[in-house]
Amino acid sequence: MSDAPYDPYIPSGQHGAAGQQGAGNNAGTARLQQQIDDTVGVMRENINKVSQRGERIDALQTKTDDLAISAQGFRRGANQVRKKMWWKDMKMRICLIVGIIILLVIIIVPAVVATR
């Protein structure tokens, strides 16, 4: 048996050859490991970005809900103000009409009484 440790990726019977090709295999393995590490790093960055995007979407959803509630409150308030202003306008018109009628009565009644 050789001094090389057992490696499941080297076919049996090639332990002696592994020692001779070890330098080439180690460089290839190191390069492959570096590519795997790079890929894992990129995937972690992507996962972090997706997580941050999800958080931003949640924050945006919350702001949208708050804005919808605020808009509904504004709409109710605007309708109340519109109704108040309509009643105020109607009261003013009624007062004006009553004032004109009283003025006409004050002018017409004495004129009719004076002509009799």
TrEMBL record:
UniProt main location, coarse: membrane
Record GO terms (molecular function): SNAP receptor activity; syntaxin binding
Coiled-coil residues: none
Gene3D superfamilies: 1.20.5.110
Region listing for Disordered, in residue ranges: 11-30
Transmembrane regions: 92-113
UniProt keyword annotations, A-Z: Coiled coil, Membrane, Protein transport, Transmembrane, Transmembrane helix, Transport
Membrane topology, from the record: Single-pass type IV membrane protein
Biological process according to GO: ascospore-type prospore membrane formation; protein transport; vesicle fusion
Positions with biased composition (Low complexity): 13-28
Compartments in which it is found: Endomembrane system
Pfam family, one: Synaptobrevin
Domain of life: Eukaryota
GO CC field: cell cortex of cell tip; endosome; medial cortex; meiotic spindle pole; plasma membrane; SNARE complex
Annotated ranges, domain V-SNARE coiled-coil homology: 28-88
Family: Belongs to the synaptobrevin family.
Protein's name according to its UniProt entry: Synaptobrevin
